[in-house]
Amino acid sequence: MNTIIRIDMAQLKVTIENSPQDSQLLGGRGLSARILNAEVPAITHPLSHENKLVVAPGLLAGTMAPSFGRISFGAKSPLTKTVKESNAGGTVAQKLDRLGIKAIIIQGMPKENQTYIVYIDSKGAQIIKAPDLKGKMNYDLVTTLQNKYGKEIGVISIGPAGEAKMAASTIAITDQDGRPSRHAARGGLGAVMGSKGIKAIVINAKDTKAIEPIQKELFKETVKDLIETLKQDKGSQSFSKFGTPNGIKFLSQLGSMPSWNYHGGPVKGIENIYGETISEVNKSRGGRMHGCMPGCIVQCSIVFHGEDGQHLTSALEYETLAMLGTNLGITNLDAVAQMDRMCDEIGVDTIEVGSAIAQLMEAEVIEFGDDQKVIGMLKELREGSTMGKIVGQGTAFTAQFLGLDRVPVSKGQAFPAHDPRACKAVGVTYCASPMGADHTAGIDYRDSLSNEGQVKRSRDAQILNATIDSVGYCYLALPAKGQVMYEVLVKLLNARYGNNIKAEDVMNIGINTIKDELAFNHSAGWADVQNRLPGFMETEKLPPNDVVFDVQQEEIDAIFKDLG
Amino acid sequence: MNTIIRIDMAQLKVTIENSPQDSQLLGGRGLSARILNAEVPAITHPLSHENKLVVAPGLLAGTMAPSFGRISFGAKSPLTKTVKESNAGGTVAQKLDRLGIKAIIIQGMPKENQTYIVYIDSKGAQIIKAPDLKGKMNYDLVTTLQNKYGKEIGVISIGPAGEAKMAASTIAITDQDGRPSRHAARGGLGAVMGSKGIKAIVINAKDTKAIEPIQKELFKETVKDLIETLKQDKGSQSFSKFGTPNGIKFLSQLGSMPSWNYHGGPVKGIENIYGETISEVNKSRGGRMHGCMPGCIVQCSIVFHGEDGQHLTSALEYETLAMLGTNLGITNLDAVAQMDRMCDEIGVDTIEVGSAIAQLMEAEVIEFGDDQKVIGMLKELREGSTMGKIVGQGTAFTAQFLGLDRVPVSKGQAFPAHDPRACKAVGVTYCASPMGADHTAGIDYRDSLSNEGQVKRSRDAQILNATIDSVGYCYLALPAKGQVMYEVLVKLLNARYGNNIKAEDVMNIGINTIKDELAFNHSAGWADVQNRLPGFMETEKLPPNDVVFDVQQEEIDAIFKDLG
Question: What is the model's pTM?
């Protein structure tokens, strides 16, 4: 894979470029950071013609290795106003890699307010006017495209939220069932795609097959070992059974699962959303677990069925059950599943929008626990009411509208469902990651109430995650000792590309990615002094352990100082 | 004057402090910057209990010197998220100085959502519950307070916008006619006052008299000379006749008076709002010019009467006629006067709200030129509709809501009515001033289309304005050669306080103020790289002179480097 497809929406022109020779260790998030640094003026408005959207499969996406099929999106974020990478599973990364495509760069803005799609197959890429797709919800959109282009296509798409350039908008990716259920959800990158006038990217890779590694045996053996490791791994085992909700019992008792807009404390009926309960309910309705991408052996994605036994939503994740559930005082499983589907349809981040609705509850616009009012608000968002569009701009925006000062965001982005007071390493990540408040940028629950050693834990996790985000590996498939992945990656990358790199080179993928991202953010005007959590995290004690966020700020500020 | 009144709204407690000995050159804006630097964590949320609102009369406010009665408000701004000072004329600065009050510091937040007033007289200050004042418009509020406390009081107040913590909200000050017509309008400081639960500060100085300078003769002579200078000054003469609209003919032809949301070009009927026209119309209706503060000899404030011959609004300023007029394609004088009154009632900045409405026009929500729809939108703002409240959050917020990327703001604050492309020194001020886009921070129209020498002009003007904002002098009363004010101030300050300071000491008032403000902003995370105008200012040519903003960025970035 060494082709870069450049889509210029100002000229409505496609150019095919070769990626530079030295880019063999650049893929996914790392490549995206490099391109944005080189091509986007960091100070530009995220919705301006100067911003670019980079779509890049991981370095191992098209191989037969399991759980490596994540697709990465990068741009200056309308939400954080800094660089953002957001990735997701689904089927498109594999297809792009198999088509030999290392990245798609979308730039410029169409002169006319038109709706376009980009169609990519082995013959190249075309920009096609598609006025009939304007305003479509994601599921309907994908069905329409499948009817036209065939069931086997992969689709990258935005819902009406992205078209309306909402800062909480996502980019959806089709899963193995052909549903737009996987979302690159954080950072509002759907708005950047929307600003380029692109409703969907259709990828047809039917003429292609899995990438053959240069050293087939080494590759096969390493994959076999990795699969064995994961099969033995307790975390992976639980994920396989219960998906990400597997931790709800533990996390809600620890207090790190947010409740009552971060005021904390128990929520009645929490057992309704325990991983085990969801699994039972879902099985009884004909639902199942699946892998969001081909070949995944963890298969943590819940294909959730409604009371009528029909598919309601995929996947039903912990973050959603927290941010549209407990943090709003809601434990009604079916209501949250319905909200999840609505958000997927509209194309908005369940974390960002959930936390925005929590602000409405704080301001007593909606009562805590009123799931029907939350569904009503999501309907407003779908229909584009003024209030709905405020919520679609995210948590900080909604809080400003309401005149509230207790705002759980970092770099303008809502905290995901890990309260930093009860999981201090992730708190450090929220502070210091170039990604803002994003648990997928680096999470570690060891000794999580203590303020000792958390900066190192966060740093290690951040570098590891920046690395796996560059090769396309899923962080939910990390074994307990995540650092073993470096050795696995050395072997897989050498086998795939016929190189002779070392563990250090692999770790440098992550380090260089973070360096590039920090450089972009500094050029965009981000100052380290802003690397801190909102004040209430340091003063309001979180039940049941009465903890505050108390990691030393100087230690946090120094986290990446050695990277220069 | 050496008393500091500290109002703690968390404890509902007043303390009286003496200002430090070394603070004799600290007043108004300079004092406010010093206090905020010392007492407010720069990183705090502007609406949090940690922010403070400083109210400080200028150093010469209570004397008989003319045009020195400006009152200064300072806080971390909900709009710019950096330090902001906003000042206004009216009568309260004189009263505070005569009561011996150097500053009022308002801190903390009330535990209950209550409405309070602060009553200050020669016996001290009291915090008084005032639930009946909640939600009142400014004019009604002031009348209510005058009925209770007497006609001679001075009132500092917020309208419903400040209570709702809107980022475009102002702090109103009563003028000589007892009307809340003067507004410390920029930076949304009304929201900070609102967050403290204070609806009004009532100042009763009836037991006091003008401050007697220590060296009476020197003071009297200097004042006499200053008055003579102003009487000879052409600018002051025009201001006296026509108020700030006196420049509309020239500025609209130059292109620096914004039109059509900064797309520029002529607006039909512009002659309806020429200074001369307004003057004629107003005289015929029984309106007049007045000085907003006692003793002012420029008297540039237009007391504007409506078609019915009754008072409609005071004052009717150039900025309002541009931002609610030409920049919206509107030249209907009476309509703009009505909008002005509505903004004064609600307590919102005509610049910020006008520019926000221009964004609505850009998005085709309202048609350019539709004055009745604009009045309708201000009614929505008054009534607190969802859309009205969006507009009340200002230009950048409204643009984000609409998904627009062409946003005429600097440090989050809307440009006032001087297009930086046609007045490049003020463009430099928008970039580099710690105050963000604020023409009162430093304006200079010499050779205004050229990009040469504008950084020095902006710098000189910024230092001079920071100086006069600290002594309470009105920048509209600056003679053509503004720098002569340093010599005037040396004499007046020496005469007033019995000191022996030099011109350098006076200039250092301004320099130190800017240093303090820059220090605050850097601590708040403001990076110099953000000191630039939105991209379209550098690319879109402004008619009729086809100019872009092209002052060298490196030169701008170096503007205050020598201050350390």
Answer: 0.97
pLDDT tens-digit profile, chain B (564 residues):
689 999 999 999 999 999 877 778 999 999 999 999 999 999 999 999 999 999 999 999 999 999 999 999 999 999 999 999 999 999 999 999 999 999 999 999 999 889 999 999 999 999 999 999 999 999 999 999 999 999 999 999 999 999 999 999 999 999 999 999 999 999 999 999 999 999 999 999 998 998 999 999 999 999 999 999 999 999 999 999 999 999 999 999 999 999 999 999 999 999 999 999 999 999 999 999 999 888 898 999 999 999 999 999 999 999 999 999 999 999 999 999 999 999 999 999 999 999 999 999 999 999 999 999 999 999 999 999 999 999 999 999 999 999 999 999 999 999 999 999 999 999 999 999 999 999 999 999 999 999 999 999 999 999 999 999 999 999 999 998 899 999 999 999 999 999 999 999 999 999 999 999 999 999 999 988 889 999 999 999 999 999 999 999 999 999 999 987
Residue B316 to residue B343: CA distance in whole angstroms: 12
Cα angle at A434 between A557 and A182, to 5 degrees?
A: 145
Nearest to B45 among A386, A401, A405 (CB): A405
- A161 → chain B, closest CA residue: B403
Alpha-carbon distance of B107 to B91, in angstroms, equals 24
Here the tokens at position A194 are 């929307």
List beta partners, residue B201: B118, B156
Tell how far CA B328 is from the center of its chain: 22
Cα torsion A439, A440, A443, A445 to 10°: value is 80
ipTM value, please give it: 0.95
**What radius of gyration do chain A's Cα atoms show?**
21
B395 CB neighbours in chain A (<8 A) are none
* CA atoms of A386 and A389, how far apart (whole Å): 5
Minimum distance, in Å, between the CA of residue B86 and any CA atom of chain A: 20
CB-CB under 8 Å, B405 with A45:
yes
Q: Which of A191, A403, A525 sits opposite B530 (nearest CB)?
A: A525
Q: In what order do the strands lie in the sheet with B101-107?
A: B13-18, B3-8, B101-107, B53-57, B71-76, B83-88
How many angstroms away from the CA of B547 is the closest CA of chain A? 21
Cβ contact (<8 Å) for B195 and A403? yes
At B235, is the secondary structure helix, strand, or coil? helix
Select the residue of A41, A50, A525 nearest B527 (Cβ to Cβ): A525
> Superfamily assignment of B3-203 in CATH?
Aldehyde ferredoxin oxidoreductase, N-terminal domain (3.60.9.10)
How many angstroms separate the CA atoms of B10 and B54, rounded? 16
Four-residue CA torsion sign, B21, B26, B32, B36? negative
Instruction: Please measure the distance between the N-terminal and C-terminal CA atoms of chain B and give it in whole angstroms.
Output: 31
Q: Do B405 and A166 touch (CB under 8 A)?
A: no
Q: Would the CB atoms of B400 and A397 count as touching at under 8 Å? A: yes
Q: Which of A45, A195, A389 sits opposite B407 (nearest CB)?
A: A45
Q: How far is A193 from chain B (nearest CA, A)?
A: 12
C-alpha angle with apex B494: B492 to B496, nearest 5 degrees?
65
Nearest CA in chain A to B536: A48
Chain B positions touching A529 (Cβ under 8 A) are 42-43, 522-525
* Pairing outcome for strands B182-184 and A53-57: unpaired
Sheet-wide strand order for B311-314: B288-290, B301-305, B311-314
Domain locations in chain A as residue ranges: 3-203
| CB contact at 8 A, B71 and B57 | yes
Q: Are B522 and A522 an interchain contact pair (Cβ–Cβ within 8 Å)?
A: no
Contact (Cβ atoms closer than 8 angstroms) between residue B200 and residue B173: no
